[in-house]
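Usage

Read records sequentially. Each one opens with the input sequence:
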Amino acid sequence: MKKIQIDHFRQLLLTLQLELVKLSSVSVDAAKPVELDQAAIGRLTRMDAMRAQSMAIETIERRKHQLLRIGAALQRVTTGNYGECLTCGKGISSGRLEVDPSYTQCIKCAGK
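and closes with the structure output:
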């Protein structure tokens, strides 16, 4: 992969990382315990509030996992093996990396 492509994907990773960190700080409030005071919840039932809390917690976990994948991808950029499939060692297509620059496998190995 050419240096200009690697720089492009590095910038994509850094931008994505920053966006996820910003979104994570917003999601923390939604994951707080549900209050029993129905007036504080408004028209939502307690079950709806608990479901929303559960979804917020899951979203936080997915973002943490994605941030770890981005960190690993940035490390591969630093070590010089970014864009290589971790399974077969062949190059990951640029189109695949445009979809998610933290992918670790080529399309062939990902389908196995």
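Summary fields computed downstream for this record:
- The chain has five helices and no strands.
- The first helix runs from residue 3 to 30.
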